[in-house]
Amino acid sequence: MFSDEAFFHFSGIVNRHNVRIRGSENPREYSEAQRDSPKVNVWCGLMHDRVIGHFFFTEKMDSSVVYLDKLENFVFPQLEELQPHVFFLQQDGAPPHWGTIVRSSLNDHFTGRGIGRGGPIPWPPRSPDITPLDFFLRGFVKYNVYRRSVSNIDDLKARITTAIASVDADMLAGNVRYDL
């Protein structure tokens, strides 16, 4: 399972370094965006046949304690139904992901099957490899969320939920392949 978080800004700001959206509109057209607009942080896991989560977080996940709390209260309970002892978990090298308490907990749940910084299977720092969350899911969801102006945070969350719910197994099969 690939996992990551992404910010969704109320104003529609998209980090162009991480997301490329190809479309039929004029690429030179622009719209003004509010700086420091309200935003939500969304965690998702992606498997070959399903999206795990999504979970909204209003606070920053800037510490291992906050990240572990989210894993224990939201992610791990949902994974228990899926027999987590048979799959791997990949995370990027964000500092909250590799704190000692997080690595210890992940080792309890994914013994020897954690892929990431400080884990049993390393994810190289500054790796040029991108995950299906980076090249598929994030762009797909942001494209669908921001096609029209967002009216408020609840509208933003509803659009994110709808976009993620529209991802089906056929879409994932074309974007997620396991060759371990």
From TrEMBL:
Entry-linked Gene3D superfamilies: Ribonuclease H-like superfamily/Ribonuclease H (3.30.420.10)
Q: What is this protein called?
A: Tc1-like transposase DDE domain-containing protein
**Gene Ontology terms, MF aspect:** nucleic acid binding
The UniProt entry, under InterPro entries, shows: RNaseH_sf (IPR036397)
This protein's superkingdom?
A: Eukaryota
Coiled coil: which residue ranges? Answer: none
